[in-house]
Amino acid sequence: MVTIDKFSRTPVYEQIADGFCREVLCGLMPEGAQMPSVRELSVLLATNPNTVQKAYLELDRRGVISSAPGVGSFIRTGAADAIRENMKSRMSEIAAIAKELALAGIPEEEALNCIRSAYRDSDQSKIKKE
Amino acid sequence: MVTIDKFSRTPVYEQIADGFCREVLCGLMPEGAQMPSVRELSVLLATNPNTVQKAYLELDRRGVISSAPGVGSFIRTGAADAIRENMKSRMSEIAAIAKELALAGIPEEEALNCIRSAYRDSDQSKIKKE
Amino acid sequence: MVTIDKFSRTPVYEQIADGFCREVLCGLMPEGAQMPSVRELSVLLATNPNTVQKAYLELDRRGVISSAPGVGSFIRTGAADAIRENMKSRMSEIAAIAKELALAGIPEEEALNCIRSAYRDSDQSKIKKE
Amino acid sequence: MVTIDKFSRTPVYEQIADGFCREVLCGLMPEGAQMPSVRELSVLLATNPNTVQKAYLELDRRGVISSAPGVGSFIRTGAADAIRENMKSRMSEIAAIAKELALAGIPEEEALNCIRSAYRDSDQSKIKKE
DNA sequence: GTGGTCTAGACCACA
DNA sequence: GTGGTCTAGACCACA
């Protein structure tokens, strides 16, 4: 389930959007699946409907969902690909931090291990599901 | 020189602080070196003096500089080590992004190459200087 | 057949009404022809009966159909002419967009070709039918 | 100046965004020019600040402005090109309407004249300014 | 001062 | 019921 950390620096609406992206990638929200309604979700997450709607707008902008007034919001076909495309931009964030680490004299191996253990963790959780 | 991107998501004061950290690590600002005065720098960077002041406070907090009212601010002894220590916390940022990439199915090698090329770039610039 | 794009900006009821207008103009729905019943069509299009009802009201307003409670809805005599009359109002929409294009520096020829190719397409489909 | 028609079907925030696009294309808002602040404009237009901000978000999404918190919003370099790019999508709207007109038997010349007179009008207003 | 986020709640057209 | 828009107003970090 999508969860919110009120004290996080990242805005609530972005946490919601990111959460659903994760669910799409996991296969929990397949293409064509209907999103909870704005009102429903706002009750569930104890947030304002406007905040949920902003999250949905963000998901629309990312090509993840499509909203039909009076009908509901649905996962678009190709949503997972759209998310993966967006993800690539995050690689540049890694590169930026890595440059700082390099400059700070942190050994390259330490940075690489950071990535490796992150991937190992995520592989683990996949295996658990199997 | 320290530069500012006013449209970046990271606050200007943090950009300034990060910039001086980089200069310390490069050896451009050795221990004991005097920082430009708040006013001077605010003119140079075309920013609000309050912003520069906040950057200096941040550098103080990080153990990078020491400020003596009426005298000026100076690079502390051990500044580079203090920065390196702070850097380690950024590794967790890399880990967090890497986990998302893993989930999104971005191959581990792509993420690793991100780090590798960042380190290669920074090696290059060191060689140039030699 | 009338089709619905539930993510389109134009309301579903308008899509339905427009669809029947097209059928009238094509000759698929001649004067006096009976419209499908509201229930029947709502099942066929997988829409809410209220929506179909609203579409029929709209067609009535446009002078395209006439509804007799308990009997059914029928294409009026002169329906095609009524539609053509309504169409003219859509010309002002074209004009409005064209003004924006002009302002944006899009060459007039590009806009004109837009129209020309639309007419060519529709001529083609007429020929095919012949 | 940007004006608002409260009774128009197009949302207020979109009217505001469109208005500024027009100003950019006219040269009234050159690259780098500062937008009025959200609060300032909301007073000027007698709307809610949230509505103005939504308009600014839309302009950001279109690549027309960039906003720096605490500093202001500014016309991006290449804003006019970004707008022209967006414009092209409107050509498909013209095509869609033109197809309906063709089907309705409206002579092609009438539709073409629609475009021509729109371009003539806009040329006129350019001449007036000269 | 600036923009960004969020709450609380109203109203709308549409299904 | 659904999403979309808007108002009124608070609070925040940042400049």
CATH-level-4 superfamily name of the largest domain in chain A: Winged helix-like DNA-binding domain superfamily/Winged helix DNA-binding domain
Number of strands of chain A: 2
Query: How would you state the average pLDDT of chain A, rounded?
Result: 89
CATH topology call of the largest domain in chain A: Arc Repressor Mutant, subunit A
Looking at the chains present, what oligomeric state does this protein adopt?
homotetramer
Termini separation of chain A: 19 Å
Q: If strands are numbered along the chain, what order do they take across the biggest sheet of chain A?
A: 1-2
Instruction: Give the helix level of chain A as a range of percent.
Output: 55-70%
What's the architecture of the largest domain in chain A, going by CATH? Orthogonal Bundle
Largest interface: A-B, 36 and 38 residues
- Summed up, the helix count of chain A is 5
